[in-house]
Specification:
heterodimer, A: mainly alpha, 2 helices, elongated, B: alpha+beta, four-stranded antiparallel beta sheet, 8 strands
Chain lengths: 71, 177
């Protein structure tokens, strides 16, 4: 079995790809929540939970990728 | 939300029972722990996956980044499932029943039944879990043109049925005056 090199480029390519998916889905979800759930307290809570948790995960990923790059 | 007619008010929003969200929730949990479980399992069988990975720097950081990105994808999956679940709703108003069906993120169907045309509403609760948690299928049929709407896994289906009949009675009373 050949070894796989985990390079900076690979880490950033994966991070960028997932970030793109995140942005697309967030726009679509936000559109649905605003259009069909305006004024609904459950939807606004869900929106906050979604952006806080996803923001935290994204932040940890970015910090880890940055440390790996500049270590 | 639906566009309301003059004098119309929403009596109840009916959604599917939270039980239907357990499937996506457990799938997400399973997917979230899969990478860790896989590494652990391979280690148990003395297969060190890390000897085949060459890192340019300390291995902990890219692994942490990849795992968080994986969790992010799983979380997006769960958010999509929840949105689909939550936006699939019946609005029972004093004039009609509006069945809004959310199919995935890009398809949405809305069907309206005027209360004066409703002929019958039936409830079907089958199985131990459905009986214990009080959820079931509500069918509403109209007279004339054969139309039916149904909401599977509805919460408190008997209460919803009662509410529909009460709304019909009030609607008819209002019409007679």
């Amino acid at each position: 079995m050949e070894s796989v090199e985990i390079s900076n480029a690979l880490v950033w390519a994966v991070t960028g790809g997932v970030f793109l998916v995140y942005v697309i889905f967030s726009i679509v979800l936000d559109y649905h929540w605003r259009k069909y759930g305006a004024g609904n307290s459950v939807i606004s809570l869900a929106k906050k939970v979604y952006f806080i948790i996803s923001g935290m995960l994204l932040f940890v990923s970015l910090v880890s990728a940055l440390i790996f790059t500049f270590y | 939300m639906i566009k309301m007619k003059e004098g119309e008010r929403v009596l109840k929003e009916v959604r599917r029972h939270w039980f239907v969200m357990l499937g996506p929730l457990f799938s997400s949990l399973f997917l979230a722990i899969t990478p860790l479980a896989l590494i652990l399992l391979l280690k148990i069988f003395s297969f060190d996956v890390f000897q085949y990975l060459f890192f340019e720097g300390p291995s902990v950081y890219p692994l942490m980044a990849f795992y968080c990105l994986w969790l992010l994808l799983v979380f997006i999956f769960l958010a999509v499932q929840w949105t689909e679940y939550y936006l699939d709703v019946w609005y029972i108003t004093n004039m009609r029943i509006v069945d809004v069906e959310q199919i995935g993120l890009f398809s949405r169907k809305a069907k309206t039944l005027n209360l004066e045309r409703v002929q019958d509403a039936t409830v079907e609760v089958s199985g131990f879990i459905a009986t214990m948690l009080n959820f079931g299928v509500i069918h509403v049929q109209t007279a004339g043109v054969s139309r039916e709407i149904l909401l599977p896994h509805s919460r408190n289906p008997y209460d919803v049925k009662r509410l529909i009949f009460k709304a019909i009675e009030e609607n008819n009373g209002f019409k007679d005056e």
